[in-house]
Write a structure and sequence with these properties.
This protein has about 180 residues and is mainly α. The protein has 7 helices and no strands. It is flat.
């Protein structure tokens, strides 16, 4: 087996193995954004039911929740402990901070907006780090087939273009290079 030289090469090999057409958008990233929106829909249905008193909103929550669970299983097929719940809350928090950031930006508070966007992206990177077994001390939190463990360790040992002092910084660099929805 040939040794992988850098993150870009690893991502290309991983994407090629996962996709029929290696030029497709990153389906896992698109799916994670879709999951964020499904979580938001669940929240909006609950609040709409509470605000209007119409239980029909509540009745729709299970249908959306079941779809969200099916979609999450595509990214998180097996796990241990509360990785599933942690992942859901990381995505939900990332989405909510992004939305608050867009409102701050629209109100002209760029400093707050940029800070919220950074926090949102950090949570998104932690989500991927957790589910790729790349967070320090969490590689064994969930079941990962041997092939994926070896690949994750290879990626974790590859230095990113810009060194980052923290584990979250390293995750940001990894996500920047590995989870790219704009490769066509």
């Amino acid at each position: 087996m040939q040794k992988i030289k850098n993150v870009k090469e690893f991502v290309e090999k991983l994407d090629a193995a996962k996709k029929v057409n290696p030029k497709d958008l990153s389906s896992d990233q698109d799916l994670s954004i879709g999951i964020m929106n499904l979580i938001s829909i669940e929240e909006h249905l609950m609040f709409s039911g509470a605000k209007t008193g119409k239980t029909a909103f509540y009745d729709q929550i299970n249908q959306v929740r079941e779809m969200r669970k099916r979609m999450m299983q595509k990214i998180i097929p097996s796990y241990e402990g509360e990785v599933w719940c942690i992942s859901k809350h990381l995505l939900a928090s990332s989405m909510r901070l992004f939305e608050v950031g867009t409102k701050a930006l629209a109100a002209g508070d760029r400093e707050l907006a940029y800070s919220l966007f950074d926090d949102s992206y950090e949570l998104y990177c932690v989500f991927w780090g957790l589910n790729m077994g790349m967070l320090e001390g969490t590689a064994d939190l969930k079941y990962v087939p041997k092939e994926k463990k070896a690949a994750a360790k290879t990626v974790a040992s590859v230095s990113a273009d810009t060194p980052a002092p923290t584990s979250v910084g390293r995750l940001k660099n990894w996500v920047k290079n590995a989870v790219n929805c704009c490769i066509e």
